Amino acid sequence: xxxxxxxxxxxxxxxxxxxxxxxxxxxxxxxxxxxxxxxxxxxxxxxxxxxxxxxxxxxxxxxxxxxxxxxxxxxxxxxxxxxxxxxxxxxxxxxxxxxxxxxxxxxxxxxxxxxxxxxxxxxxxxxxxxxxxxxxxxxxxxxxxxxxxxxxxxxxxxxxxxxxxxxxxxxxxxxxxxxxxxxxxxxxxxxxxxxxxxxxxxxxxxxxxxxxxxxxxxxxxxxxxxxxxxxxxxxxxxxxxxxxxxxxxxxxxxxxxxxxxxxxxxxxxxxxxxxxxxxxxxxxxxxxxxxxxxxxxxxxxxxxxxxxxxxxxxxxxxxxxxxxxxxxxxxxxxxxxxxxxxxxxxxxxxxxxxxxxxxxxxxxxxxxxxxxxxxxxxxxxxxxxxxxxxxxxxxxxxxxxxxxxxxxxxxxxxxxxxxxxxxxxxxxxxxxxxxxxxxxx
Amino acid sequence: xxxxxxxxxxxxxxxxxxxxxxxxxxxxxxxxxxxxxxxxxxxxxxxxxxxxxxxxxxxxxxxxxxxxxxxxxxxxxxxxxxxxxxxxxxxxxxxxxxxxxxxxxxxxxxxxxxxxxxxxxxxxxxxxxxxxxxxxxxxxxxxxxxxxxxxxxxxxxxxxxxxxxxxxxxxxxxxxxxxxxxxxxxxxxxxxxxxxxxxxxxxxxxxxxxxxxxxxxxxxxxxxxxxxxxxxxxxxxxxxxxxxxxxxxxxxxxxxxxxxxxxxxxxxxxxxxxxxxxxxxxxxxxxxxxxxxxxxxxxxxxxxxx
Lengths: 441, 306
Fold this sequence. Notes:
heterodimer, A: 441 residues, alpha+beta, Multidrug efflux transporter AcrB transmembrane fold, Alpha-Beta Plaits, Gyrase A, domain 2, four-stranded antiparallel beta sheet, 10 helices, B: 306 residues, 2 domains, 4 strands, 8% strand, disordered C terminus
């Protein structure tokens, strides 16, 4: 009996040590998991859902258009250098984009949503006598076509030119060459305005870029006047391609990393204070068993957090709430057992027998009552995965589920082992330590 | 020994009154739907200089945002809830506020379209229903060896509806006074209340189950009353430890989690009450066929005695 208990104690302590090792330091890599995975609300970042407007796409080719849009968004996100981005198709016509840790939200959103079409425009005098830039066109094979970057080969690059400084090289494809030849011949010695997604492209000097056409351009050309970083970004954007369909944001959430860090701080404080209050209550009310339950609670916290890291569970603010709530519930199993123990002791059993009977008899209540929490968690998780704002709901469900499951283990195995070991010590006869008033009833 | 079951109609009266108030509040104040359910935008702004809420409200009104809800967070940030903003509108609004109040940073921006809001509302409704049905089945199953398992399941569900009604109803009073909106945290909290409510009820029922098989007494009323008194300590202690941690959450994390915490606090109190004074006493009422006494005040029929 005692030997078996000591064996279990050793196993429990080994498990405790393992979970501490897994957990600490928090950002360490263990079993291929780097740190605890944090949701966007704690880490900061962008969560967007776009709805693709497929009205211009031929029936039957919708999926293809969405896939190509996703491929292009992936390339563009690479420009931002985000770690672990998520870009996924959702349902028929939605695209989910999650960029954790992005601080320049505005820039990132522009980069994703932009059609990234570079247009060439010519200057005309309109009916009101004002200057106006209109898309420049030429007629190829009897069809009027606009000159833009959709005719670029996806191999633009940036270089230094001894005379012009930073230059962006581009090559026309076959059709583009014909168009360009027609247009530059017509606009020779006239300015050609360059527009990006409808806005006049500005140079390093802040002036709109509108070079004078010096020669007929057929196969390739250069754009000058940009700063180096702008030119590199533009080049990557052009090489990523043009998103074939308009994308409308239907859901967006951007959170600054500072706000998230603050929430981690606050919930850590709430967690620590909550645990201390629970421990104090348990020790004052149940004395020695309460103290043992408090030790088991510390073990519980480490084991649960270690599991969060290993599984991994994405922690959001709601998830932290679920974890903290589970601390309150975790002692429930202990409370059930201790109350039971007291009763058994009052009916005349020895302390050892009361401990055993307490665990034995409380088990069905612990099992049946926790199953209802599991059902609620499973349904919450299912709700979470069915909605766009899934992260907080699924995270709460997962943390509460794991928390309650582990709490059954710590109460049944850990607290029981502690108590059994104590029953054999000289402390055991001091009934006052167990806060049982044996005279009652 | 306390006689709880004997005072059952007093407890029904208390619960009835609270539920009545809850329903009246829900019907008259209702619940204001947050952007997750009704679409719209929310911006959290952090000002470098101290900004008074009244000044901010006035400036927003002069910019044409008279209908917005402004909330100040614990750290002195402001959460502004508006109609759905386009990207340009938002940048314009922030620029205007920056011109008036000095440098600011956008800590959070959140925008939901009507389509998404509708989906979320529908799914949340389905989830709450599914949870209730799943739990009814579970409780019925858990007590399937008892005579009349359906009684236990139904009484657990009545207690559950009681708890959810009270939690949501009292929340509606608080939110009407403080101008809060209902968000996903509220739904999460409500589902947690559902789990918690039945959890408590099952512990009491489990004891009734055990005492019935032990044949402590032939009188069902006495068995139920004993079981209640025996589980009283556990129910109160577990509720206290859970309340401690939820209060800590409410006090430290604040605005972002307040919906969740408040619903849960009310739910825990209601759940403890109903698991002790409503669910088991209803079992007795059912067993003794006293339903008629609720309304008609029929003379008490003879106790059946198994």
